[in-house]
Amino acid sequence: MNDHGNPTPARRLAYLGSGMELFLIFLVNTLLKVLTLGIYHFWAKTRVRRYLWTNTEFDGERLEYTGTGGELFVGFLRALAIMVVVMLALYALLQVSEILVGLVVVLAYLFSPAFIGMLIFLAQRYRYSRTRFRGIRFGLQGKAIDYGFKFFGYSLLVGLTLGIYKPYMSTQLSSYLLNNTWFGSRQAGFTGQGGDLIGRFMLAYGLTAAGMIIGVILLFSGLEPALMIVLTVAITLGVMLAWYWYSVEEMRYVVSHTSLGDMRFALQASHGQMFMLSFTNLLLIVLTLGLAYAWVTVRTLRFMASHMAVSGELDYAVILQTQEQSDALGEGMAELADIGAL
Amino acid sequence: MLWARVWRSWLISARCDHRAVTAGMIHGLWYDGMSAARTEVEVRVVGRQLALLAIGTGYTLHSLPIEQLRLADDVYPGQPLRLYSLKQPDARLVVADHSLLAALRKVHPGLGRGGFRRKYLGGMSLGRRFVLVGGFTLVCLVGLAASVPYLGEEAAAAMPAQWERAMGEKIAAHITRDTGTCTDEPGTEALARLVSHLAVRNGYDPDFVVQVMDAAMVNAFAAPGGQIMLTRGLLRDAENAEEVAAVLAHEIAHSILQHPTRAMGRALGYRLVFATLLGDASSVAGMAGQAGETLLNRSHSREAELEADRIALEILNNAGVDSRGLATFFERRQKARLFSGPRGSDILSTHPSFPARVAQAQVYQREGMAAMALADWQALQGICNNGKTTSTEEGKHDHE
Q1: Residue A295, helix vs strand vs coil
Q2: Does residue B322 share a domain with residue B176?
Q3: Of B68, B83, B107, which residue sits at a domain end?
Q4: Of B107, B132, B151, the domain-final residue
Q5: Three-state SS letters, A202-249
Q6: How many distinct structural domains can be found in chain B?
Q7: B209-213 and B227-231: which strand pairing?
Q8: B57 and B177 both lie in a single domain
Q9: What per-residue confidence (pLDDT) applies to B11?
Q10: Sign, Cα dihedral of A290, A291, A293, A299
Q11: A33 — contact with chain B (CB < 8 Å)?
């Protein structure tokens, strides 16, 4: 082990959970949800997180999830109360001026990406603050509203540039989230730049454009219908593969530009391996009508953990506990807005 | 002896396996909650305290009151115990040797047991738990899935008549919304006389609300609270008043048996069960659930239709009306059938098959008098004639 200067094992991150155990948790959760008309949802979610966290081992110690279902439920109720107040206010406003209400609704719709960004940030902050490793809490600093407006602004740019800004948006957002991530008093970091990804992005983008042009040409070429269908399917699959390739490239890029102290990460899975994982997962889900979800979750986590190379050491002794406040309101709102996360 | 201690501590640190347990000694890892540093300790129960001793020197680093210890996480088989003390909620003690738990429970029996607390699940293998817990849960789920729709049905059937009526009016308004209804006065009065005749002779309250939809399809519906709808197409298709009376009696039977209300309660129950069962699962499972829901409802409506046919024949027979119209109507519809089978309580549900319904009708049917006076029959046939409402969506197969 590393505290003692022994050689670093090749794989320091491991996922130790079992699909059967997770399935059992799902099963019991389902029963309790039915019995409580769904209110158990929050406790169920917490139970699943606890299991996923506690089976994630790093340097011989497991993660711990300390959130509670009650906390999530209260967050949800508070979000619901705010929603009701907003609705009542809108209703009251409706008596005064219909145009004003229309304006408010249009503005709310326009700014919804900002709101979604805020919720993603707040939910992440809640999860971090309830995650411990070696007794030390994780934390997310920064402001939800900043992240929300970044999210909004970048979404706008992506729209204006016909999607070409997307890799910049991803790296900028990752940068804000990761540079504000703390393990106790140790700050994580992210040094990625959209410019590094744009070449690969444009390759997939260009292939998509080419595929579309060829598709249109085919449409007017008067080819045999059967041949046309085969070609269209081939082009569609080709475009999908190009984007899959890009998403793996981006994931690997983000991972390899993330740091925690002196620690660096690398996702050492080939495109083929990643593709096989996604493909077999899809097959499992479809063939079992979703019953294999627990196994799919576990094998995905196990795959990711076992292909994650970690280099460099953390000086655990100088990482201190910090006090950070966070509540489940954001997660409650995310729940209302149906922004799913685990 | 000193050299032995040094040797032992060297051995442990060299192996550096926190799961290592030297005979008679329980090894633990202590994180003090202030930093992420790890301290290896020997753990020993001393009275009501858990002593953490420095490896090698045996010096007591900490002493934790056992009653204040809690599991920080659920413990699954093969996983170490992770404990914290109420006094030091940030600190963690990690012990791989589960035998410590038994020693702690002698002082603090509730540790890792009961309620919403973190649980110790290491006592039973996963396979066994899978069979016991999983089996029990499955039995409960199947029991619920079977009983909730039934409960929903009974609850719906027991609702106050006023609510049922209000709900039925809404549903009827919804069904007739697109097509409009035929309200020619002589026809309406003739229909009311037929309804009242059938009801009174059978001892029912004649408070059924029977409307004729201005739609070309051949169909009839019953909604909760005595709401009944026939279609213009049905009146045109019928060869005589007895067929219309038979269809009407069928819908009255549904109403008397509370089939529409019960079907709604049951559907709600199924929806509830499937929604909660599949709430987290994929959309594939969602679709499978919906198919299952429809299928279960269908199989239920088969019996309901046969029952309604039987009661309809009774109603007609009690009223002295010739009840051979039901069989002739079905026979003709079978030949003409081009319909996709709607669900619920409409007259042309695909289940059960027409031959079965015809066969049953022929067993119970009886000769009798005409259902209505000739003038009334003609008035009823002309109920849509005065052009008060226009049919917009001809042939649309609306239902429920």
Answers
A1: helix
A2: yes
A3: B107
A4: B107
A5: HHHHHHHHHHHHHHHHHHCCCCCHHHHHHHHHHHHHHHHHHHHHHHHH
A6: 2
A7: parallel
A8: no
A9: 46
A10: negative
A11: yes
From residue A222, give the alpha-carbon distance in Å to each of A212, A232, A290, B371: 17, 13, 42, 65
Range with the poorest average pLDDT among A12-16, A157-161, B309-313, B341-345? B341-345
Q: Please indicate, yes or no, whether residues B99 and B207 belong to a single structural domain of this protein.
A: no
The torsion of the CA quartet A18, A23, A25, A29, rounded to 10 degrees, works out to 160
Domain ranges of chain A: 193-253
Residues B358 and B220 occupy one common structural domain: yes
Kind and range of the H or E run holding B179: none
Q: Choosing among B10, B73, B125, B133, which should be mutated to test the A contact, i.e. which has the most A CBs within 10 A?
A: B73
At B301-339, the pLDDT tens digits run: 778 888 999 999 999 999 999 999 999 998 888 877 644
Residue B132 belongs to a domain: no
Name the residue with tokens 């409307």: B211
User: Is residue B37 included in any domain, yes or no?
Assistant: yes
Residues of chain B in contact with residue A1, where contact means CB-CB under 8 angstroms, are 16-18
Residues of the domain holding B366 = 168-260+282-381
DSSP letter string over A317-335? GG-B-------SHHHHHHH
Query: In angstroms, how far is CA B357 from the centroid of its own chain?
Result: 30
B87/B190 same-domain check: no
CA distance A39 to A35: 9
Q: What is the CATH number of the domain that holds B75?
A: 2.30.29.30
Which residue in chain A has the smallest CA separation from B88?
A: A135
Residues 37-66 of A with CB under 8 A from B: 37-38, 41, 43, 50-51, 54-55, 60-62, 64-66
pTM: 0.74
Report helix, strand or coil for B68. Answer: helix
Distance of CA A72 to the CA centre of its chain: 19
Mean pLDDT of A138-167: 94
Q: Report the side by side order of strands in the sheet with B209-213.
A: B181-182, B209-213, B227-231, B220-223
At B181, phi and psi to the nearest 5? -120, 160
Higher pLDDT, A338 or B163: B163
Examine residue B162 and state whether it is found in any structural domain, yes or no. no
Complex ipTM, two decimals? 0.85
List of chain B residues whose C-beta atoms are within 8 Å of the C-beta of residue A50: 73-74
* Same domain for B191 and B297: yes
The DSSP call for residue A6 is: P
Instruction: Return d(Cα A6, Cα A3) in angstroms, integer.
Output: 8
Tens of pLDDT, residues B246-264? 999 999 999 999 988 888 8
